[in-house]
Amino acid sequence: MLNMSEITAKPIKLLQTAQHPCSYLDDKIATTVLIDPSENLDPYLHGQLAAMGFRRSGAHTYKPMCRSCHACVPARIVAREFMPNKSQKRCLKYNMDLVVQNN
């Protein structure tokens, strides 16, 4: 959770796309807000943006901003705190024969 006293006052340039087909849901129209790629996002600032629902793909930090749809819900999982439930354990056990290779 963000502590309001820790939020920086540095302005960030935002860009907005035109409407486009949604990448997540068929037959939906999306609009995306992007952080200007020339912005220098340090880890702390990126954490603040992630807490506000922004996502990162390579050098792009973005957030879906659709007027008529709010189905895209960001989720963050703290890996070291993850505890698989029974269903996930069963899935892991079922797939123990799979091998991951880096070529």
Account of the 3D structure:
- With 103 residues, the protein is α+β, with helices and mostly antiparallel strands.
- It has one domain.
- Helix content is 17%, strand content 18%.
- The strands form 2 sheets. Strands 1-4-6-5 form a 4-stranded antiparallel β-sheet, with no helix packed on it.
- The chain is extended, with a radius of gyration of 18 Å.
- The chain starts with 13 loop residues before the first strand and ends in a 9-residue tail after the last helix.
- The model has no long low-confidence stretch (mean pLDDT 87).
Brief overview:
This protein is α+β, with helices and mostly antiparallel strands and 103 residues long.
Q: Could you give the order of the helices and strands?
A: EEEEHEEH
Tell the overall outline: extended
Total count of domains: 1
Gyration radius (Cα, Å) is 18 Å
**Major sheet strand order:** 1-4-6-5
Distinct helical segment count: 2
Low-confidence stretches: none
Main beta-sheet annotation: 4 strands, antiparallel
Strand content: 15-25%
N→C terminal distance: 40 Å
- How many DSSP-defined strands? 6
- Give the structural class: alpha+beta
Determine the mean pLDDT: 87
**Fraction of residues in helices?**
10-25%
